[in-house]
Write a structure and sequence with these properties.
Layout: H1 2-28, E1 37-38, H2 40-46, H3 51-63, E2 67-70, E3 74-77, H4 82-103, H5 109-123, H6 128-143, H7 149-169, H8 180-190, H9 194-205, E4 208-214, E5 220-226
Antiparallel strand pairs: 1-3, 2-3, 4-5
Helix pairs in contact: 1-3, 2-3, 4-7, 4-9, 5-6, 5-8, 6-7, 8-9
InterPro entries: GntR_C (IPR011711), TF_FadR/GntR_C (IPR008920), Tscrpt_reg_HTH_GntR (IPR000524), WH-like_DNA-bd_sf (IPR036388), WH_DNA-bd_sf (IPR036390)
Keywords: DNA-binding, Transcription, Transcription regulation
Protein name: GntR family transcriptional regulator
């Protein structure tokens, strides 16, 4: 009986991880908009499971700051404002600079070439999803040699938050752009100038864009996004 309960718990845990990952993706890409109610019954039916793993998935989303539980109102997609965007930008600046300082001594020509390729691909992206993927790939490539998995995991979570802000603001009418900061960071790293690379990176990820956004109800709200 003890073994059976353990296996049952493990199964619920696995399903909860899957559900939370899929819902997180929907929240990040804007399919589930801020303030939208997450209905436990509907989600359990969609994933053909009981309410137990759905509740666990909700707790995971709350821990990530993607959902909020309200008394007598259930669970909703968390909203965000300019203060949260700034917080994520400042955290990214601090942690990515830390990672880059540890990564710089282990930087190779192959890594720099791959990062250059990611930047070139980003410059030619036709939509926001492609650009975000190329941008994230660039940032991950230059910090991964730090060899600090907990730090990298924390940065990954912040990039997910950045993507949510970005998608909410630039869901359509994406403007093609050339990323001069990425190339300046790579130039500094090629010269072995870690301090300059870190200064440019810190400034780069703290740049916050602004754009008016029309909501589903037709109202206009201020949209803010981290675009580095």
């Amino acid at each position: 009986m003890i073994i059976y309960n353990y296996m049952k718990s493990e199964t619920h845990e696995t399903i909860a991880v899957k559900i939370s990952r899929i819902l997180a993706d929907r929240i990040i890409d804007g399919t589930l908009e801020p303030g939208m109610k997450l209905r436990q019954d509907h989600i359990a039916e969609e994933f053909q499971t009981s309410h137990v793993p759905v509740r666990e998935a909700f707790r995971r989303l709350e821990a990530q700051g993607l959902a909020i539980s309200e008394p007598r109102r259930g669970v909703r997609v968390a909203s965000f404002d300019i203060n949260e965007v700034r917080e994520v930008a400042e955290m990214r600046a601090a942690l990515e600079v830390l990672a880059l300082r540890h990564a710089a001594p282990h930087m190779t020509r192959a890594i720099l070439e791959a990062a250059e390729k990611a930047t070139s691909e980003g410059d030619n992206c036709a939509n926001i999803r492609e650009w975000e993927a190329a941008n994230r790939r660039f940032h991950r490539l230059i910090i991964e040699p730090c060899g600090m998995p907990r730090l990298l995991a924390a940065i990954d979570d912040l990039h997910a938050a950045s993507a949510r802000f970005l998608f909410s603001t630039w869901r359509s009418e994406w403007e093609v752009r050339t990323d001069h900061d990425h190339r300046a960071i790579l130039d500094a790293l090629r010269k072995g100038d870690t301090d300059s690379a870190c200064l440019i990176l810190a400034r780069h990820v703290q740049w916050i864009g602004h754009r008016p956004v029309k909501t589903a109800s037709g109202k206009i709200r201020d949209g803010f996004s981290i675009i580095g």
